[in-house]
Write a structure and sequence with these properties.
single chain, alpha/beta, 14-stranded parallel beta sheet, three-stranded antiparallel beta sheet, about 20% strand, F-box_dom, F-box-like_dom_sf
Length: about 525
């Protein structure tokens, strides 16, 4: 994953920094032919080059090279360490994919770190940096499952793997590996990996069966740097990770409903736990997440992504779990509230501060109001829950009812639904009824009185005037508290695209909100929603 500096280079594309990265990528591709070899920032044919983020005018290749002379001179003056960082930012993220779409050529390119080999052909200095900087060779992905279907000897893949591991020196390793039991190439590749076990820092093993690879036993006691582990819960040899003193983050996947013995994992030191369950058989629907939560009681962050396609499960599969997590995120593919309600009924979250509830697929999951209210009561959410996000099937009346038990809530994020095959008429929760409930009323308790942040992705089924009333009311209430600085209310409003909303926000409303911004009383962001807002 790109770091913040890399994201800056991509977003600030009009800056010299972005042009510098484009120039480096273009230089690294100079040995290739055809437009397919050009980096993503460069479009069109080899004779016409268009640089993303500039004025938008197409330049000939010769014009671009001429305009980049100053950038090229700057590149030559860059310190080796900075140039290595930029090389690292050029890492193609698609190299990390483990799926059936990978071709033999893809596998060779990523095992050989082809992008580094290309950069190393530009000049002797670049070659030295690309070949001799261990961190550039510290992220490896390969799919052993696919090797036998390719017309390339396994020995060739193993040679490339060994070469990349060697060039990484002692630098901590990030690994994504597709494995399968019983494969000779699986054993040989894993034998290479365990020789570098002391370097493992973030490891993802993708396996669809009960992996029994004996070679993994040689990694026992050598996992001093392992920080993040991701694997299928059907593994037989999770005991090899029992002695990993720095392991803090754990991702467990159950894709066939088979849950192995997870007791030997160092649960007491896990701070963040992800639990991903799809295609599970009915008896394991809730047993899997509950068993993980029971063991990860010390984790501060819990993420559950589950497919719950059933009305209910037997009570024999259920048991009570209390977790000290401060942040819990549910991402659910579910069609009825009963199973979600059963899951909620098993939980007690006495330390919870942040609660997210989202859809895992196209269809919104139903929100089990009664089960949530019971969970809030026994977990005492009224004392400590400060952040809530809901993207689910819930009415505005139900939402207000749930908010009444959360007096300490400071941040609230809500999404209206969108039309799907199963629900052509979308669920609407951001309405005048909901917004009016946020207004101060002398004869009623003030709903979520500490609310200072409101994030809305609506279909604009509410009135602009009611939104303005809420903003003014909240600003007034926040400003009435004693203090040297006047607090500001924050609103983020990202409406759905024109085909999925009933109207536009009026220019007059936006102008009034911007006036409050200019007065320093409001932080306001608005615009079209993107896929990242869902």
């Amino acid at each position: 994953m790109q770091n913040s500096a890399s994201r800056h280079l991509h977003t600030d594309s009009g800056s010299s920094a972005s042009r510098l990265q484009v120039a480096i990528q273009l230089a690294g591709q100079s040995d290739s032919t055809g437009s397919d070899a050009l980096p993503p920032e460069i479009g069109g044919s080899r004779n016409v080059v268009s640089v993303a983020g500039t004025s938008g005018d197409a330049l000939t290749h010769e014009q671009y090279v001429a305009q980049s002379c100053g950038v090229s001179a700057l590149v030559q003056r860059l310190p080796t360490e900075l140039l290595a960082d930029i090389f690292d930012m050029c890492f193609p993220e698609e190299m990390l994919w483990i799926d059936n779409s990978i071709t033999a050529a893809d596998e060779v390119r990523r095992l050989s770190q082809h992008h580094l080999l290309q950069l190393g052909q530009v000049c002797s200095r670049w070659h030295a940096i690309a070949m001799c900087t261990p961190k550039l060779w510290s992220t490896l992905a390969f799919d052993i499952n696919s090797w036998r279907k390719f017309p390339i000897p396994n020995s060739a893949f193993l040679t490339l793997l060994e070469s990349s591991l060697t060039r990484g020196g002692d630098h901590p390793l990030t690994l994504r590996v597709g494995t399968r039991k019983g494969l000779t190439e699986n054993r040989d590749a894993i034998t290479l990996l365990y020789k570098h076990a002391q370097r493992w820092q973030s490891v993802h093993f993708s396996s669809n069966d009960r992996c029994r690879c004996k070679s993994f036993s040689d990694a026992v006691g050598n996992l001093e740097q392992l920080h993040h582990l991701s694997l299928n819960v059907s593994w037989k040899r999770v005991d090899i990770f029992a002695r990993a003193p720095r392991l803090k983050s754990l991702t467990l996947r159950a894709r066939k409903g088979i849950v192995g013995d997870l007791s030997t994992l160092p649960w007491q030191q896990i701070e963040r736990c992800e639990c991903i369950g799809t295609r599970m058989s009915k008896p394991h629907l809730l047993y899997f997440p509950l068993s993980v939560l029971q063991r990860a009681q010390s984790a501060a962050e819990i993420y559950l992504s589950l497919t719950l396609r059933s009305t209910s499960v037997s009570q024999t599969q259920l048991f009570q779990v209390s977790s000290n997590a401060r942040e819990v995120e549910f991402e659910l593919d579910a069609d009825t509230p009963q199973l979600i309600g059963q899951l909620f009924d098993c939980l007690t979250l006495p330390c919870l501060e942040s609660y997210d509830f989202y859809a895992a697929g196209d269809d919104l999951p139903p929100w089990p109001s009664e089960a949530f209210l019971a969970l809030a009561d026994r977990s005492k959410f009224a004392d400590h829950l400060t952040r809530l996000s809901i993207c689910a099937i819930i009415s505005d009346v139900e939402l207000v009812r749930c908010l009444k038990v959360l007096p300490r809530l400071e941040e609230l994020s809500l999404w209206d639904g969108w039309p799907t095959e199963s629900m052509p008429v979308p669920n609407i929760v951001i309405t005048d009824t909901f917004l009016r409930a946020l207004l101060f009323k002398e004869d009623e308790p003030y709903l979520v009185p500490s609310l200072g942040f409101l994030y809305l992705v609506p279909r604009l089924e509410f009135s602009d005037s009611v939104l303005l009333d809420v903003v003014n009311c909240r600003i007034e209430e926040l400003g009435s508290d004693d203090g040297d600085e006047c607090p500001t209310f924050q609103v983020k409003l990202f409406w759905q695209d024109p085909l999925e909303r009933s109207r536009d926000v009026s220019a007059e409303t936006l102008e009034q909100l911007q006036e409050l911004v200019s007065e320093g009383r409001l932080l306001f962001y608005y615009g079209e929603a993107s896929e990242f807002d869902f």
